Amino acid sequence: MRQAARAIIIENNKILLMQRNKNGNEYYTLVGGGVKQGETQEEAVKREVKEETGLDVTSTQLAFIEELPEPYHEQYTFICTVAPHGEVELHPDSEEATMNKFGLNIHTPVWIDLNVFEKIPFRSIHLQEKIGEAIKQGFPKEPIKIYN
Predict the structure, then answer these.
(1) How far is CA 37 from CA 48, 49, 120, in A?
(2) Residue 25, SS3?
(3) Distance between CA 57 and CA 44 in Å, rounded?
(4) Selection from 1, 18, 147, 143 nearest residue 72 by Cα
(5) Buried b (16+ CB within 10 A) or exposed e, 42-54
(6) Where are the alpha helices (DSSP H) in 1-148?
(7) List of domains in the chain
(8) What's the whole-model pTM score?
């Protein structure tokens, strides 16, 4: 069973998202990606955040576990804090930067105001709803399962 790990990173009333343009289909998703063999979900989210944004994750808390169809069956979403940083950008050697070079599947890390988060085209509507609720009411102390 394949797994993915994703990060919710919020700073200054903004959430860090990956803007995607895949075959002309534009949408947003959380930063993150597949969990490699022998890697924990927490290790994966830290690695993916570093590759996709250059940010160093300093703490994580599992918030949501989403059951999904292929290619990933389970997606683990963590609330993450990051070390002080400058601009956010793809690591030049990342898979996403390589795809950008070929124009196949464009990835752009962007900060989005929390007050518009629920209105943007987000990849997982169910996860978007849960994050929107948590932004208003507080994130869960124990992970919540989301079924699609």
Answers:
(1) 14, 18, 33
(2) strand
(3) 11
(4) 1
(5) bebbbbbbbbbbb
(6) 41-53, 95-102, 125-137
(7) 3-147 (3.90.79.10)
(8) 0.93
pLDDT above 80: residue 141 = yes
CA-to-CA distance for 46 and 50, rounded, in angstroms? 6
94-136: per-residue pLDDT in tens? 788 777 777 778 889 999 999 999 999 999 999 999 999 999 9
Residue scoring higher pLDDT (101 or 78):
78
Tell me the one-letter amino acid at 110: V
- Name the band, by pLDDT with cuts 50, 70 and 90, for residue 143: very high
Encoded tokens for 87: 């601009």
Contact 114, 10 (CB under 8 A): yes
CA distance 20 to 12: 23
